[in-house]
Amino acid sequence: MLKALPHIGRRRALQGAAAALVVFGLLLWWLLPVGEDSPSGRIAFSTGVREGVYERYGKLLETSISKDMPDVDVDLLNSEGSQQNVARVATGKADFTIAAADAVETYRLDGAPGWHRLRGCTRLYDDYVQLVVPRSSKIKDVADLRNKRVAVGQEHSGVRLIADRVLDAAGLDPTTDIKPVAAGIDTMPSLLKDRSIDAFFWSGGLPTNSVRALSEEMDIKLVKLGYLVEALHKQGGGSRYYRAATMPADAYPEAQQGSAVPTLAVANLLVTTDRTDPELTEQLTRTVIDSRDHIGDQVHAAQVVDLRTALFTDPLPLHDGARRYYRSVKP
Questions:
Q1: By Cβ atoms counted within 10 A, which residue in 50, 149, 184, 269 is the most buried?
Q2: How many Cβ atoms sit within 10 Å of the Cβ of residue 234?
Q3: For residue range 117-134, what is the model confidence (pLDDT) as tens digits?
Q4: For residues 56 and 85, is the Cβ–Cβ distance under 8 A?
């Protein structure tokens, strides 16, 4: 028969077992996300016009979200662009969106419904303003658009906002000095090919597939716009977010024929509101940054998303969840 352990031996054995349980518990706490349930539910993400960069980016981001947050379902909503996107999120018709900083600032300055609830998650990539005309066109600058048929984007698009301001900076009235055509990037190229319009404005990441495809089907050129930046800044308001930029020569090789084009650029932001759950926002912000290379393979503009600048979401304050993410990855 085995002898009973001495009293001190039993005590040491119990202490050792307790210590082992503590170590095991700590190991489980380290390996398992105890108390941190993965976000779940359904979110609405407002994208943009069909064939546009916003729509393509949204579809690719949805794939990344389904991988990182399998319990979150995403409804992608097409829109006319930045102006409608901001309004949808501010009024609770969508949870997240992409919008250009000028459109966000305009909505805020107008005191539109829900403006005070808007929050930023990430600075994404820049939109480049593109004025496209046939190569044979005599249009050399914006002032030459007088009396021409010009596609200026849909009513609630960011393109319309920019086109109107660019025309005004060049001394043209957007409603009377040109013949404005409300159209998006899904129809602009075909209208130009059919000679139904003389020019079109577009604002999007580089390259935009529809513009690139058009350049391979007909001879087009891109009109210089960079010289208007000072006149735009004098307008104040959202126009202060435009900056002079250079469209690299390889953006649209067929159209540019080896020449860079001075133009205008404006930053895009991932936008939500203070109503959105911080944990969901933190994880979605993480997914946006982590999926940069995956999305950038197909949407080249996304390749420039940079952790070092992503948290600068002016004119919007950072969402608390996004702030938590940036603090977690701070070196």
A1: 269
A2: 10
A3: 999 999 999 999 999 999
A4: no
